[in-house]
Design a protein that fits this description.
The protein is α+β, with helices and mostly antiparallel strands and about 100 residues long. It has a single domain, classed as Alpha-Beta Plaits (2-Layer Sandwich). Helices cover about 30% and strands about 30% of the residues. It has a four-stranded antiparallel β-sheet, covered by helices on one side. The longest helix is centred in the N-terminal third of the chain and has 10 residues. The radius of gyration is 15 Å and the shape is flat.
């Protein structure tokens, strides 16, 4: 069985926009190396339940292992250092689902 895709789901409140820009400007090195693809990156949102954060990001990876490797890579960790103190973030890695769907 082929690996399932995996996703980073990040919910972010930016406290220091200038410092956060440095993070956003440097994280692409790791994302390109690990085959990441942005599915949502900021943009309009609507909180249907629970507490929202100002910025929401979903990044697709080829597999859960690749998503982990990207997060733990020296390239990403160097970029993430720019985010320290600039933003409050919740980040989860989620494996994709390829089972039965409603109505099938």
């Amino acid at each position: 069985m082929a690996d399932r895709k995996a996703y980073w789901i990040a919910r972010v409140d930016v406290a220091d926009p200038d410092a956060y820009k440095n993070y956003a400007a440097t994280n692409g090195v790791a994302f390109a190396k690990y085959g990441a693809r942005f599915l949502a990156r900021g943009g309009d949102y609507e909180a249907m339940e629970g507490k929202a954060r100002a910025r929401n990001v979903i990044i697709e990876f080829p597999s859960m292992q690749v998503a982990r490797d990207c997060y733990n890579s020296p390239e990403y960790q160097a970029s993430a250092a720019h985010r320290k103190g600039a933003a409050e973030i919740e980040l989860v890695l989620v494996e994709g689902y390829d089972g039965p769907q409603p109505g099938e």
